[in-house]
Specification:
Order of helices and strands: EEEEEEEEHEHEHEHEHEHEHEEEHHEEE
Helix content: 25-40%
Structural class: alpha/beta
Number of strands: 20
Radius of gyration: 21 Å
Low-confidence stretches: none
């Protein structure tokens, strides 16, 4: 049993100052004002000394951590993310691998992350197999360019099983609905996303009844259709903005390369605070940073050797700090964007906020989201101080 005292609790829509939180049997047992705290006999006690205490972060879209691909070094990648407050991560596998390779990667990730003393494995985010071959880093290596083939994708769907939380799709690809239906049969709780796509709003909306509820790295790797002289067309980004049911993922890097800071503020205004999801999209690429003033200080983004932007070196705590700078978001907002919303978007309804009975994944941070301590399942997992 674990107790945190003298904390500033970060709830989903307010703060509770001078508070405590009790954890028992891996769950949040109780919380409230210090003046209501009872006997702590039997509890290990952590004095937060006025620091902020909120739910563990949920990074639902990350390929790597600390320079380690999840499919190569899952233990190192997961440990790095855990140190930065991500008590749940969804390792992301990419479309540049064949089915056999993706299935092997699933085994490596499952086995590696299971060996963690405090596992933060939340399932898979499959940025594969059926994207639009025109979009995405390393797209010249896309082995899924041909027609959608049930004999090819069914072994992958079955191998992922209930561990797959999200399948990313390009809704414009012929036969994608059959893939979605088959994935839903194997795992009824799975969610779908639109990404690496130039689908029309109508093609995207056709998949919403089947569980499409996420826009993968919103405004990145998407096309724009129906361009007329001096007129803007509509495509994926407009559909994600327009449809209330779709969560918008944002990669918020330090200088706003993935998503311009003004656009981050615009997306937040359009979508509302309960549909924004911060992600790291962390990868391991070593292409050179392009020259130019635009990229000055861009320490947390990556490029492949063709010069294409290729994910980031972010962790969610850094993404939160960046989003705070770019949009003026508060800590209450940031915990919503990086914990509650991604948990809800992926069906992980047992975590993401401070509430009795939920999973006791908690982090202690300062006012700039610098992580001090990490608790997983009610046990102290990381001390960064």
């Amino acid at each position: 049993m674990l107790a945190i005292i003298n904390a500033e609790l970060v709830m989903k829509d307010h703060y509770i100052p001078d508070a405590f939180i009790l954890m028992k049997d891996g769950k949040i047992f109780d919380y409230g004002k210090m003046k209501k705290l009872g006997d702590l006999e039997g509890y290990e006690v952590i004095d937060a000394q006025g620091a902020y205490v909120g739910p563990g972060l949920v990074d639902m879209h990350t390929h790597a951590g600390g320079g380690h691909w999840f499919y190569n070094e899952p233990l190192a990648a997961a440990t790095h993310m855990l140190k930065h407050g991500s008590t749940t991560v969804l390792p992301t596998l990419y479309f540049d691998m064949k089915a056999e390779q993706l299935m092997e990667q699933m085994d490596v990730v499952r086995e590696g992350m299971a060996s963690l003393p405090h596992s933060n494995f939340g399932g898979f985010y499959m940025e594969a197999p059926y994207m639009n071959p025109k979009f995405g880093a390393n797209r010249e290596n896309n082995p899924w360019k041909g027609p959608i083939n049930r004999d090819e994708y069914m072994p992958l769907i079955e191998k992922g099983g209930d561990d797959v939380r999200v399948w990313v799709t390009a809704p414009e690809r012929e036969g994608i609905k059959e893939f979605v239906i088959d994935a839903k049969k194997v795992n009824p709780g799975v969610h779908f996303s639109v990404g690496h796509s130039e689908a029309t709003p109508q093609q995207i909306e056709e998949l919403i009844p089947y569980g499409l509820c996420i826009g993968t790295h919103h405004t990145n790797a998407t096309g724009t259709l129906e361009i007329y002289p001096e007129c803007r067309g509509i495509c994926v980004d407009e559909a994600v903005n327009y449809n209330r049911d779709i969560y918008a993922e944002i990669i918020s890097d330090t200088v706003g390369i993935h998503v311009n800071p003004y656009n981050q503020r615009l997306i937040r205004k359009i979508k509302g605070d309960d549909r924004i999801v911060l992600i790291s999209d962390a990868c391991v690429f070593d292409g050179p940073i392009p020259e130019g003033d635009l990229y000055d200080g861009a320490f947390d983004i990556l490029f492949d050797h063709s010069g294409e932007i290729a994910g980031s070196k972010l962790t969610l705590d850094q993404a939160c700090r960046n989003f705070m700078k770019h949009t003026g978001a508060s800590l209450v907002d940031l915990f919503k964007f990086a914990s509650l919303n991604p948990a809800r978007a992926t069906g992980l309804n047992d975590r993401g906020e401070i509430r009795k009975g939920l999973k006791a994944d908690v982090i202690i941070v300062d006012h700039k989201m610098n992580v001090k301590k990490v608790i997983v399942d009610g046990e102290l997992a990381v001390v960064n101080e």
